[in-house]
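Cross-check.
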Amino acid sequence: MKFVSDPDISVKINQMKRRVRWQEPLLTEKAIAQTKLVIDDHNTDNPEFSFLVIGDSGCGSHLKHHPQRKIAEMMLQQQQECRFILHTGDVVYQVGSREYYQNNFINPYREFLVGGENPQQLQYDRLTFKLPFFLVPGNHDYYDLPLIYGILAQATWLPRRLLKGQIDLDVGWHGSFEGEAYAKAFLDYLIDVRGKVNLERHLDTYYIGNHTGDRCLQYQPGKFTRLPNRYYTFRYGGIDFFALDSNTFNQPLSIPDTEAGQAKRAKLLARQSKLEAQEQKINQAIEQLNHQNAEDAEQIDDYYAKLEYIAESQRDIEKQLNQQQQQTDWEQLVWLKNSLVASWQDQTVKGRIIFLHHPPYVTEMTKWNQGQTLAIRDRLRQVFDDAAKEIGVLPEGRSVVDIVISGHAHCMEHLYTKDTGYADSYTNWIICGGSGHSLRRQRKKGAVLFADIDDCSQPIGQSNLFVGRNGSGKNKKRPYSFLRIDVKTDHQPQFTIKPYVCEWHQRQWNEYAIDPFVI
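Predicted model, tokenized:
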């Protein structure tokens, strides 16, 4: 959907800072760390615990089935044994609008919410979780919709209602207002706390936790479940978790003004023209199909998935071709580096997990070679390299972090890097982005990761598991997924990864688990 707009990185950073009153005098006076939280569940020191992971879930119903709701129902079977949920972003499609929080977030996860027995009475900006939800924003959570397109979307309201139960495009009047809906739904939206007296009362009520000697927000399941910032850290069972907002350091690297750079630019322009031709051909094919026919409607849904892939590719190409330098969120990246170093210097910490939206490594066909994927990889490599220099020699067999969990690619995948030449070597990368929205296939070039995207260079890693769209015609399968991760921390942590799948095939659901693996 290329009619959406993505705010500049500087806008995202500044707007989110404003919403949490980033480092205002009263917060600095009280020495509050706005990137830390502690969980008040009296079990955070338990060296054995489990948690769930979902991502790219925020869709409504499609073709009379609701994949996000089916995944939520499967998660309910695990919740009694799990301490919290990580969400890798894209909470609401298509443009993170508050209009769609009711259908695309509250209703699917109602059992996890206080008052969820009456979900229609819940307000998106007044949510309280029973089981902790720790989220990071996805690109769709920042997207906006220009007014003219909102008007056009509403002009098609009646035909879309008549087609309800077939296809819902999840587009209303407007977008996220530069991430405002996400911030109001999940962050401690301090800008709405008026007056110094009220702000001080609020801080003294909810910022009573202590994380590594710093005063911070106390996350209270069932009572107060706001996050302190768009990126943050918490500790559970001896594992440090780092939540990142990758939307502010995903700007593709500049194309050099060289012969090789000119060749790359020409290749991107040719790719852009090819995508435009494909888009026109798909739109013509959609016009020939009947929404009321079940088989045609399923084909239309597939076409919409292809159109979204084309739009994503076009946006990525435009970002690569645009030589206007955008701000990179070095403040967040320096915070991550310093936090990793401090974590390694704390002997009580047994392991480290990062979760973010954009994957640094992936073999899903739409994301594996995108400029944003390579940019995230480059920036994390810089952070890991800098952290490793300060940490010194790591224990044998250990990497800077144990696992990096991401979404954005609409699949489930486990990858492992070998020697990359950087400090992201020998690392496990898990993608959990198949929890509701249109699924994608693995790239045709296969599961091996190479140093350069041309696949003619040194192999640096391998995809060990890929769960995504597969088959064709009547044998087409859509395996939506989520993860349960069981953790045991002793001298060195052990993570048992348990993938769960709810597969839509021939208009029927099939639930199953994939054999767990240990990392």
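Residues 289 and 296 are 6 Å apart (CA to CA). The first helix runs from residue 9 to 19. Passed to J.P. for a second look.
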